[in-house]
Amino acid sequence: MAKPSEIFGSLVFNDAVMRERLPKATYQALRESVYSGSELNVDIANVVAAEMKNWALEKGATHYAHWFQPLTGITAEKHDSFIAPVGDGTVIMEFSGKELIKGESDGSSFPSGGMRATFEARGYTNWDPTSYAFIKDKTLCIPTAFCAYGGEALDEKTPLLRSMEAIGNQAMRIMKLMGRDDVKKITTNVGAEQEYFLIDKTACEARPDLVYCGRTLLGAKPPKRQEMDDHYFGAIQPRIKLFMEELNEELWKVGILSKTQHNEAAPSQHEMAPIFTETSLALDHNQLTMEILAKVAKRHDLICLLHEKPFVGVNGSGKHTNWSISTDKGENLLKPGKNPENNKVFLIILAAVMQAVDDYQDLLRVSVATAGNDHRLGAHEAPPAIISMFLGDELDHVIESIVTGQELTKLKKKMLELGAMALPGVVKDTTDRNRTSPFAFTGNKFEFRMPGSQQSIGDACFVLNTIVAESFRQFADRLEGSEDMDAAVDALIKEVFTKHQRIVFNGDNYTEEWEKEAEARGLHNMRNTVDAAPALIDEKNIELFKRHGIFSEIESRARYEIKLEEYAKLRNIEALTMIDMTRKNILPAVSAYSNDLANTAIAKKELGVNPRAEIQLLSEISDLQADLLDKINALESAVDSTESFTLTEQAPIFLKDVLPKMEELRAVADKLETLTAEEYWPFPSYGDLLFSTK
Ligand code: ADP
Ligand code: MG
């Protein structure tokens, strides 16, 4: 294997490549336009495109594609080759600035919510020069934003880019007020920890539920799950090690800073974490990571399951999204420093985040609401559906002293007592981790733990950027023009910390007591996607998005419809898959086994042996089988009854009527699995799947 430093970024048209290959004036004009967000003129784009093409051809590429992120959750790309005829039967390789900047694609083939009626079918992809072009499968991929003819966003990228601008602008107002004239630009950064399962390909492909839905819809509990805690951080199996080596190589090639990898809590569950980057790049990189995970897994005869809850009874997968805010010089403004109580910039940002999280709990909640994540949130292994914040002892003390006006008593850093003289003393962090918190301050960043593993981080990130931008806006409006800025800032911070204390919770988020207490505090508890979706069309939130230029009202309403449509479609596929598996595979399998039991009973009787076991089992199985058939029929008619409704209307029906019937059907099928001889059971068991890579 080549050295990581040689591989890293070898397939990326990154800054170093541009600096080396582009004429100086072109390079500077491009940098300037990226930095200030101004439009790039077409002459410059022509020069960039020509050099991009030359570079790509040298790397063996033959095609280019505008790479974008429609609201399907996965990326899309339309490939064009570089060839252009010259009239004598031969071709040359061409790529113009126009082709680099803008592409056209059929907008109506992607989710567009209620906008379908109001916009032309055409959709456009626009080059996003803040993210580097890269080569994937011999194709030069140009990161783009995707919008409709009238400019309405149809993707994950557009609102995120808009939110980066919004928070940048509002944060700069605060920086000015705080006397930070040295700061020229503010941006947010994200590191997204990706959890996933790796399952043997043969076992996985024998399960239609995994093939169609990415999660098991049936399956009895195996004798062993994760109770021995022997997988988390455990030694990595050789087969998985090989997979991870190749994964890293592929990620590094396209410039993804893959850094950490380890086994997770559930059997066959793993995690990959990159080093954080600017948020829009983190979004692109995470989408690419998910794609590469799936691709590399196949090469190792594995299937990578990115679903939030592939298996009942073991932990699901999330995507902890670590967020911070920094200056153009890379200074992390969420670093509290030795004396946070005197770090006014830090305190004002902390206050802004606290107010944002409290005022817009509903938006944060809906940003992570998907059918898949509904199975994970609140399942006592992941944060609950209630949003709260964890700040840790040190900051709690600081806030308490600000709120009460009492003098701050410093927490003493303690030495960890390791009990062995040979070990060097380790200074204990002043805060322990609270792993149950949905939104935790972890030293110099916030960790939003609710996003689901297969979800785009786009939604969570643009919501976070926007709600904090709104706090900054309100703060700046209030502070601008103050005569005694220090006093005004102190008063503001005190007021915000006092007002929003209810959002801070340091206890165990997994308990029922917290649910009760949260209710008493007046916090939202939106248990599922259907409950959470209306946040997108709440008047206050529509106004927020309009004010910061994130969404027009039409765009907000479209997101709402898409959210519910997607929910209904997914549940429909799941229900149909379940009906298929139980009707076409489980019923006949149980009949075959019953037949075997009956024949054995008859044979025993002829021999004068009492067939008590066979008869008892047979009657138990027969009853359950009849029950199974009833449940299949009930589920089927529940699904049928949704047909006369629009997809948006179907979502609550799937939640309230179909989903419980799926659970009832599953209970009977799983019971039958435990009673049926293994050789008759048509699907690999949970044990076969979860321990398939051992
Ligand atoms: P853990 O949360 O498990 O302790 P780390 O501290 O290594 O792990 O961080 C997890 C993720 O947070 C990584 O992706 C890391 O790059 C990211 N991260 C670290 N610092 C920041 C920061 N200032 N802003 C955003 N993300 C960060
Ligand atoms: Mg973490």
Any overview of this molecule?
The structure is a single chain. Helix content is 48%, strand content 14%. With 694 residues, it is α+β, with helices and mostly antiparallel strands. α3 crosses α4, α6 runs parallel beside α15 and α11 packs parallel to α16. The two termini are 25 Å apart. The radius of gyration is 28 Å and the shape is globular. A hairpin with a 2-residue loop joins β8 and β9. The protein contains 23 helices and 21 strands. It has four domains: 151 residues, Ubiquitin-like (UB roll) (Roll); 124 residues, Glutamine synthetase/guanido kinase, catalytic domain (Creatine Kinase, Chain A, domain 2), CATH 3.30.590.10; 227 residues, no CATH class; 124 residues, Four Helix Bundle (Hemerythrin (Met), subunit A). The strands form five sheets. Strands 1, 2, 3, 6, 7, 8 and 9 form a seven-stranded mixed β-sheet that branches. Bound molecules: adenosine-5'-diphosphate and magnesium ion. Adenosine-5'-diphosphate binds next to β10, β13 and β16.
